[in-house]
Amino acid sequence: MKIVVTVKLVPDPNAVRRIDPATKRLVRAGVETALNPFDEYAIEAALQLKERLGAETTVTIFTMAPESMKESLRKALAMGADDAVMLSDPALEGSDVSVTSYAMAQALKKTGFDLILSGALSDDGNTGGVPGALAEYLGVPGLTNVRKIEEIGDGRIKAQRETDSGYQVVSGPLPALVTVTMAVGEPRYASLKGIMGAKKKTISTLSAADCGIDRLVGSDGAKMEVVSIAAPKAREKARVVEAEDGAAGAQAILDFLRERKLV
Amino acid sequence: MPPSALDFLEIDALLDDEERMIRDTVRAFVRGRVLPNIAQWFEDHTFPRELSRELGKLGVLGMHLHGYGCPGASSVSYGLACLELEAGDSGIRSFASVQGSLAMFAISNWGSEDQKNAWLPRMVTGESVGCFGLTEPDFGSDPSGIRTAARRDGTDWVIDGTKAWITNGGIADIAIVWAQTDEGIRGFLVPAKTKGFSTHAIERKLSLRASVTSDLIFESCRVPGDAVFPEVLGLRGPLACLNEARYGVLWGAMGAARSCYESALEYAKARKQFGRPIAGFQLTQQKLVKMLLELNKGVLLALHIGRMKDAGRAHASQISFGKLNNVREALAIAREARSVLGANGVTLEYPVIRHMNNLESVFTYEGTNEIHTLILGEAITGSNAFT
Ligand SMILES: Cc1cc2nc3c(=O)[nH]c(=O)nc-3n(C[C@H](O)[C@H](O)[C@H](O)COP(=O)(O)OP(=O)(O)OC[C@H]3O[C@@H](n4cnc5c(N)ncnc54)[C@H](O)[C@@H]3O)c2cc1C
Ligand SMILES: Cc1cc2nc3c(=O)[nH]c(=O)nc-3n(C[C@H](O)[C@H](O)[C@H](O)COP(=O)(O)OP(=O)(O)OC[C@H]3O[C@@H](n4cnc5c(N)ncnc54)[C@H](O)[C@@H]3O)c2cc1C
């Protein structure tokens, strides 16, 4: 089984983030590149499947990013993925969700896959729009918010989808796309052997032309435009409730919640 | 932009991608697994045995050794891992040092093919724990006179004697024991369950509390003829291992120092007295700057010795240089940091006094300050001043 994990390369989530007011884009200069944290869960899920299914199963990391970020993929290889494929092309710069998904779909058709695993959300763009659109462009079922893959094989997948009130069991034909939640398990630490072995694993690069990308892509092809960007309102200072005794305190909190129609 | 307070000399840039990734991985492990629990382990005077397998999975046990499942990492990578582990706690780094640089190194360097096959693959995963018994109640800095003795009885060996201050002793599956024989000092592999071999935990330590330290007691302890390291004879055997472990210590100490420096810096910027942060007072700045200087010099020294070691050029006395300087300075940094934290500096809520107390052990084991001074003294004068 060929599993492909889509991994977005994002600015280090622990670094201070700044948005350039002119381009309305995150400033990446001077900030380390990291694997999108949610995608690390997808990698974990893929490696668990590989352990379950045996040596016939391979895990490929896929990203669409500038070629200069190539080395940032080593961490995913160190965790245990077999190889990585990058879609890199200056023409793709400034792509929105729709164009990103189209371009990724073209590349993934080229690499082939039985199962695509994705995180649900990127740490920078944060739309959560790519996986759904990607499944659509590929014409495969999209199983979102999966917390556990129950069964996989014989051309089908059965999984538990997390919902607000519990979970649903869903099933569909392979190939399919699955987005995972944090419930699949904490991403493993790369082992030192894995790190040292990662040097020898291949990271291949595809251009837009290689994948037969023939539509307008990048900022020229984007259907969406970021019109303006505003900082969220600073959080109000916490209100401290002072009361005579516990009962009065509880009443004050209840009044507060009622006032806000929260109870 | 002014240099970062956390990497003032851009030492990061002297590492390659793989070294940085190894460093970051061990750091993440320490952050996730050690830091949330270490104050409790220290307080409870315990080393959680299950950590052994976790460290094995991470790959830091015997990481610089080759073959038999060992990763074969460079000396610099091994040093970086020691630094990150000890930024967590010297006890955790001690576990890895004893396992990898003392017990596994001894087997890897001096063991027979059978001994290597029997133990190294299990030790690299942390499934089996090793300890290294050289010190005795009456022989510390001067191990040449150790009294533990092994005599031949038929094809077997029979060991009698007591080892003291042995890290991992009580949790070890295999003890490397150095004993006098008719030919001179030789090394033996004694499995934990061997009849006549028992251990006794050293309680009430106020240092390295997240590490097990024990006496090893041998009473007519019989081991088969193939339990001895086949070739090596004399103090050369244990000293080669100590050299490896000292190398890890000279890096590790800088981890404890870094943790203290960072705690002190953060604390000084937040703590206000006389209407402003104490970081604004000249006397506090002098303390912080002293720490900054010695920390960065120490890490540069470690990296330099590491590069020499990877090139096959690090002499034992140069490793003594690093051990002496870096542990001495780490201890000074810890004490200085402790003072910056005021009363908070004496609690386990902050890492500083834990590091400070731990470093007292690190100062003493693997050759005391005095012993390394004498090694260096002899190296530059040609005159032996030990006796
Ligand atoms: C400040 C800012 C300004 C922006 N300005 C514009 C703009 O002007 N015009 C515009 O069109 N768009 C703009 N974008 C959107 C940006 O291009 C999106 O980040 C991109 O389309 C992907 O969407 P996402 O990051 O929201 O991914 P999400 O849909 O949140 O990602 C979900 C999952 O999809 C996968 N995935 C997403 N992207 C990739 C990738 N590149 N490679 C591999 N896997 C991936 C990952 O598995 C990820 O976990 C801007 C974003 C930011 C943060
Ligand atoms: C927590 C801990 C863990 C340990 N783990 C291990 C282990 O796993 N395996 C092991 O074999 N040992 C271990 N040791 C023992 C350690 O190696 C010894 O404590 C060390 O070698 C010093 O020996 P000593 O304590 O007997 O001190 P001594 O040798 O008695 O020294 C006492 C003092 O005299 C000084 N001194 C000695 N000789 C001279 C001289 N010629 N000139 C000037 N000063 C001198 C010393 O520097 C020291 O200051 C451990 C110790 C500790 C504290």
Provide structural commentary.
The complex is a heterodimer of chains A (263) and B (387). Chain A has 263 residues and is of the alpha/beta class. Chain A is 27% helix and 25% strand. In chain A, the strands form three sheets. Chain A has a nine-stranded mixed beta sheet with strand order 11-10-9-12-8-1-6-7-13. A two-stranded antiparallel sheet of chain A has the order 2-5. With 387 residues, chain B is of the alpha+beta class. Chain B is 50% helix and 16% strand. Chain B contains eleven helices and eleven strands. Chain B has helices at residues 17-34, 38-44, 51-58, 75-88, 90-110, 113-124, 236-270, 282-310, 316-340, 352-364, 369-381; strands spanning 66-67, 70-71, 130-133, 149-153, 156-167, 174-181, 184-191, 197-201, 213-223, 272-273, 276-277. Chain B has a four-stranded antiparallel beta sheet, covered by helices on one side. In chain B, strands 3-6-7 form a three-stranded mixed beta sheet, with helices on one face. A two-stranded antiparallel ribbon of chain B has the order 1-2. In chain B, helix 7 packs antiparallel against helix 8 (282-310). The interface between A and B is medium-sized, with 14 and 18 residues. The structure holds flavin-adenine dinucleotide (FAD) (2 copies). Residues 98, 132-135, 140-141, 165-167, 208, 213, 361, 364-365, 368, 370-371, 386 of chain B line the site of one flavin-adenine dinucleotide (FAD). The site of one flavin-adenine dinucleotide has 19 residues of chain B, from strand 3, strand 5, helix 10 and helix 11.
Question: Superfamily at the CATH H level of the largest domain in chain B?
Answer: Butyryl-CoA Dehydrogenase, subunit A, domain 3
Beta-strand percentage range of chain B: 15-25%
Proportion in helices of chain A: 25-40%
Rough shape of chain A?
A: globular
| Tally of individual domains of chain A | 2
Ends distance of chain A: 50 Å
> Total domains of chain B, how many?
3
Unreliable spans of chain B are none
| The level-1 CATH class of the largest domain in chain A | Alpha Beta
Distance between the termini of chain B: 54 Å
Number of DSSP helical runs of chain B: 11
Mean pLDDT of chain A, to the nearest integer, reads 93
